[in-house]
Amino acid sequence: MVGEYNVRTIFVQIKCRLGTAYKVAEKIVDTIEETSEVHSTSGQFDLLVKFNIGANQDPGVFVTSVVQRIEDVVDTHTLIAFNAFTPNINPA
User: Which fold has domain 7-80?
Assistant: First the structure.
């Protein structure tokens, strides 16, 4: 069925304790199964992480019970993705 997906994509910007961004990124990659990509970034947040969570999984519960519990994570900002547009795939 069009528009029906088994996963939900969320992007989480993460602010880390000073000097710990790479350690936090490594911990995320090694321990959180739903991790798709982790990028170090400049600006207010240190990391941008793409997670693919279950379609029925609550993003708020996932972020607060999994991501925010990682040592040295200071703050998060979550973006919930609706559709992905790529050169070969158009969800419309």
Answer: Alpha-Beta Plaits (3.30.70)
